Amino acid sequence: MARPVSPRCAASVINTWRLPMRSLFLKIFLWFWVAMLLMGGTLILAQRYWAGPSLPTPSAMAAYVAEAERMFAHKDSEGVRLWLRRLNRESELRFFVIEERSRLFPAQRLPRPLQERLEAELDTRQTRGGRPRAVAEAFKVDGREYHLVAMLPHHRYRLQDLPVSLRLGVALAVSAAISLLLAGVISRPIRRIRLAAQRLADGELEARVPPLRGRDEIAELGHDFNLMAERLQHLLEVQTQLLRDVSHELRSPLNRLQVALELARGAAGASAGTSLDRIEREAERLNDLIGQVLSLSRMETGAVEPRWAAVDISGLVRDVVDDAAFEAGDRLSLQFQGAEGISATADAGLLHSAVENVVRNAVQYSPEGGRVGVVLRTDGEAINITVLDDGPGLPEEQLERVFEPFVRVSAARERSTGGYGLGLAIARRALRIHGGDIEAANRPEGGLAVSLRLPRSRPSRDTSVDSP
């Protein structure tokens, strides 16, 4: 029993065989076909324009000579003149008769320029392209020798007489013009789709492909791209709104929990102090988590308006290192290396948050007795801040994922060590608002190196919603 064909499959087959005019395949085929036709037509027109008249064939010359012999035999000089005039009028060739001693018939000496030209034209070695431009046929009447000459007009050139390079140049020029037009027709809409894709990748969720002409596959691709972009924008907006709503909803019971905790601490005895302290720590951690989620959400959606000002980067980084060293105490050592007086146009709060999150991350995962180094240097118009730790490092395939929200990519970096996987995500978002970026790499001697890079000047365009 035959299996039924699905409507979707049947429609696909029909569309494939139908090849409507909106098909890109058919457009390309027709363009190349038209290009070949135009090239052929150009060559044909050039042939007709430049070809001009052809020299008489040997049989035709024999017929002309027979007619001339007959008239000369009858002493019909006037008839010869009229006959030559008629031949010159009816064709684009020049016919004349040369008597002995290079004299034109009747009894006119052949002008020297014409004689030299005739000799050159009759010499096939001196004609263009090796083709003679004149033919002559000798005949005798009453012992006198005559030459019937047929010559192409001097101002007309045949296509065969043109240099091969010029003929190839004409063909190449026509094909290049058509190919250029075809390339523009195909590449222009593709370039628009590519630019829209780049904008979408840069975080412009409103990026769309402008309406494209026609209904071919490229136009359909642009339409499908817009549908995809709308779907992505909707999903991301829903996700961001969900995080924001959940965070706000958690804030209210958390505040009530903290108030109840203080009341319970006052009413309970000393025996409940340990449990209440644990509840307080968990409440503070939850409050910190909610704050980080809200901060990241605001930066993701562009709700953060950077406060641009001249910032002393050297002083900012040194303050972060000093604070981290104070909190770490004797557990490990922190070292700062960098020149003084390095400044940039930045948002001090966002930049401080980015550097602090990276340094705290390094302190958190460095072993006791380890060392954390912070190196500040300039590279032209960019500023580089590198944070080095002695921790366990990361698997190579996870070096990029570590900057995604709520990602803990190693067993050595679990929640039990503290943190929620948001610090580095916030740092990357803050740097991209500044037109910079952040990346991580494993150190050969062990540990992780996190590099922060930002420009000295304010970014030329709004990067507050750039995506990774």
UniProtKB/TrEMBL annotation:
Membrane topology: Multi-pass membrane protein
Location(s) in or outside the cell: Cell membrane
Reaction catalysed by this enzyme: ATP + protein L-histidine = ADP + protein N-phospho-L-histidine
SMART domains: HAMP, HATPase_c, HisKA
Start and end residues of each Histidine kinase domain: 245-458
Matches recorded under Pfam families: HAMP, HATPase_c, HisKA
Keywords, ordered alphabetically: ATP-binding, Cell membrane, Kinase, Membrane, Nucleotide-binding, Phosphoprotein, Transferase, Transmembrane, Transmembrane helix
Regions crossing the membrane: 28-50, 166-186
GO terms, molecular function: ATP binding; phosphorelay sensor kinase activity
Residue ranges occupied by any HAMP domain in the UniProt entry: 184-237
SUPFAM superfamilies: ATPase domain of HSP90 chaperone/DNA topoisomerase II/histidine kinase, HAMP domain-like, Homodimeric domain of signal transducing histidine kinase
EC number: 2.7.13.3
Gene Ontology CC terms, in alphabetical order: plasma membrane
PROSITE patterns: HAMP, HIS_KIN
Principal subcellular localization: membrane
Protein name per the record: histidine kinase
